[in-house]
Design goal:
mainly beta; six-stranded antiparallel barrel; 8 strands; 0% helix
């Protein structure tokens, strides 16, 4: 869910981060975003046994925007560089900075097709 205010503490950021939960898919597994900004993302894998990518690794992500368009789901393909990996029992995560955000590829749901 999108909170009305940016997340983050007193650190100076390049762009505001927003607490938003979106489905995310990588080449390793599926997961959920925790924070998203114009410059990057923090996400967790659904399956905690999936090994996280190493810091500095290049990754590809697909974000699914479920309610952005009344015609259906929108997929956004992105690439990023892993900045850090958090290893905690409760909320481990992967922080990545965007290196590329592809254009929206279109609607995933074709229920409005004639």
């Amino acid at each position: 869910m999108l909170a009305g205010a940016p997340a983050g503490g007193t650190k100076r950021r390049l762009a505001p981060r927003f607490r938003v939960v979106l489905p995310v898919t990588t080449d390793r597994a599926m997961g959920w975003t925790r924070d998203v900004s114009a410059t990057g993302v923090i996400f967790t894998f659904v399956d905690r046994t999936v090994p996280a990518p190493d810091a500095g690794a290049q990754i590809r992500l697909e974000l699914l925007l479920e309610h952005a368009d009344p015609l259906g789901f929108l997929q956004i393909h992105c690439a990023g560089r892993v900045l850090r990996v958090e290893h905690t029992a409760a909320a481990g995560g992967v922080a990545a900075r965007w290196t590329r955000i592809a254009s929206i590829l279109g609607h995933r749901n074709s229920s409005t097709a004639a």
